[in-house]
Design a protein that fits this description.
The complex is a heterodimer of chains A (57) and B (397).
Chain A: E1 2-4, H1 14-18, E2 24-27, E3 30-33, H2 42-46, E4 52-54
Antiparallel strand pairs in A: 1-4, 2-3
Chain B: E1 4-10, H1 14-25, E2 30-34, E3 48-50, H2 51-54, E4 65-69, E5 71-75, E6 81-86, E7 94-97, H3 99-112, E8 116-119, E9 121-129, E10 132-140, E11 143-154, H4 162-165, E12 177-186, E13 194-198, E14 208-215, E15 218-226, H5 236-247, E16 252-262, E17 271-272, E18 275-277, H6 293-313, H7 318-330, H8 332-347, H9 352-360, E19 364-367, H10 372-382, H11 386-389
Parallel strand pairs in B: 1-2, 1-11, 2-8, 5-13, 6-19, 11-18
Antiparallel strand pairs in B: 3-7, 4-7, 5-6, 9-10, 10-11, 12-15, 12-16, 13-14, 14-15, 17-18
Helix pairs in contact in B: 1-3, 1-6, 6-7, 7-8
Classes of the chains: A alpha+beta (57), B alpha/beta (397).
Keywords (chain A): 4Fe-4S, Electron transport, Iron, Iron-sulfur, Metal-binding, Repeat, Transport
Organism (chain A): Methanocalculus taiwanensis
Pfam families (chain A): Fer4_7
């Protein structure tokens, strides 16, 4: 699953634009992920601050 | 919020504001929704814009101009610096804006023209009728509104979801996004009339570092790196911290700004039935500079003009809105995007040795016109061998 670290996130939306599934959404000042996430890790790479991590379940 | 408008604009940045203003001035009903509680904040921009681009839209106002820029320097990976100066010294070539004030001014002008504006109001889904967009579901203050619109403009920026929900793939490839971090810094030793650009694979792989002054000792110091170069331990912020530590160890950070800028080709089509896509949402930021303010304002206005004509004809189908897509592609902006994409594809692959050689070839360029095109043309004149790599570019120059 994708873990969003809200304490690190700068809610810039860079991750939303590269998400191939449209699973991420920037709601005002917080980021959400829905069930369509495929744990591809593209957002984890692109984040300028390192707020996203794919965690193995 | 009413149940129906002629036009619904999703997003209150420069693109959305210009679209709403343009339509409202024609006496049509417009609703602009912005999901943030305040227009213009948080800033996600380096705030630089060419002087001649801005004056296309509104007269310069000291209220939202932080600094007038007179020259620029390009710094090679080995720290050799090349000066770019207009032939007439002292003439301004660009501005560093105060986007918080600038964006608010643009939306205020839209409101003054008659547009309804709603903040902390988020589009959560398009309303689809017979396979076409017919408005949007808007959530505000815990209420849900179904807002019908004859035409909807998606001006929802880099994190655009609206077009995707309506069936258009807007995904930016990882290697074609610049992932960016910026500090507003104070107490730093800079030339307040000069912008600086630092190149190099060590400094900013597949991107660059910028210093955009906002006053005496005050500047946006930022970086964009290619998405493909980003990862744990080497993110935009890591590179920025390294640069700042080396260059401005005594500086103080008073704001952190992050963002993504697409450097891909524009969407293959920026219209659908009853819908037009503008600015960053249409992937229209410049692939070399990352600049997008002008492109958003230009396409926002053009989209609105096209929509007004379509509304007058009573036909807002994709075919009726196509003139918008066709016109921006052949415009000066459209041609620059196409050319700069091709140049970017070459430049992101250059080694530091090559970048050094290119910058060293000229110590100073006197520019007639302060643009990426004149810069590229001059660089190629001094480095004829570049033409070999830019062979397919010849048709653009």
């Amino acid at each position: 699953m994708l873990n969003i670290r809200r304490d690190i996130c700068g809610y810039c939306g860079a991750c939303v634009s590269v998400c191939p599934e449209g699973a991420l959404e920037l709601v005002d000042a917080y980021l959400t992920v829905d069930h369509t996430c495929i744990n591809c890790g593209i957002c984890e790479k692109v984040c300028p601050l390192g707020a996203l991590e794919v965690v193995k379940e | 919020m009413k149940r129906q408008y002629d036009m619904l604009v999703i997003g209150g940045g420069p693109g959305g504001a210009l679209a709403a203003k343009t339509v409202a001035e024609k006496g049509l009903s417009v609703c602009l929704v912005e999901k943030r509680p305040a227009i213009g904040t948080p800033v996600r921009c380096a705030e630089g814009i060419g002087k001649e681009l801005l004056t296309d839209f509104l007269p310069p106002d000291p209220k939202w101009i932080a600094t007038e820029i007179e020259r620029a320097e390009l710094v090679a990976p080995d720290d050799f610096s090349m000066l770019l100066e207009p032939k007439m010294a002292g003439s301004e070539v660009g501005y560093v804006l105060d986007r918080k004030v600038f964006d608010r001014e643009l939306v205020w002008k839209a409101a003054e023209a008659g547009a309804e504006t709603y903040v902390k109001a988020r589009a959560t889904a398009p309303i689809m009728k017979n396979g076409a967009v017919a408005g949007a579901v808007i959530e505000q203050h815990g209420q849900t509104y179904e807002v019908d619109a004859k035409v909807t403009i998606a001006a929802d920026g880099i994190e655009s979801k609206f077009s995707k929900w309506a069936g258009i793939d807007t995904t930016v490839p990882l290697r074609e996004i610049e992932t960016c971090a910026q500090y507003l810094m104070t107490g730093i030793d800079i030339d307040p009339q000069m912008t600086s650009f630092f190149l190099g694979n060590e400094v900013a792989p597949a991107g660059y570092v910028w210093i955009f002054p906002k006053g005496e000792g005050l500047a946006n110091v930022g970086i964009g790196i290619g998405g493909g170069k980003s990862g744990a331990g080497h993110r935009a912020k890591d590179f920025l911290d390294r640069f700042v530590k080396r260059k401005f160890p005594q500086g103080r950070i008073i704001e952190l700004i992050v963002g993504g800028v697409s450097v891909c080709k524009p969407l293959s089509c920026t219209v659908a039935d009853n819908m037009l896509i503008v600015g960053d949402a249409a992937r229209l930021s410049d692939p070399i500079t990352g600049g997008g303010i002008y492109n958003a304002m230009y396409t926002g206005r053009l989209a609105a003009e096209t929509a007004v004509t379509a509304l007058e004809m009573g036909d807002t189908s994709k075919a009726a809105l196509m003139p918008y897509d066709a016109e921006w592609r052949v415009s000066k902006m459209g041609k620059a995007l196409e050319r700069n994409y091709a140049v970017k594809e070459v430049f992101v692959k250059l080694s530091d040795e090559k970048l050094n050689a290119i910058v060293h070839s000229i110590a100073k360029i006197d520019l007639d016109e302060f643009s990426t095109l004149t810069l590229i043309t001059e660089l190629i004149k001094a480095n004829p061998s570049l033409l070999l790599e830019l062979k397919h570019l010849r048709s653009f120059l």
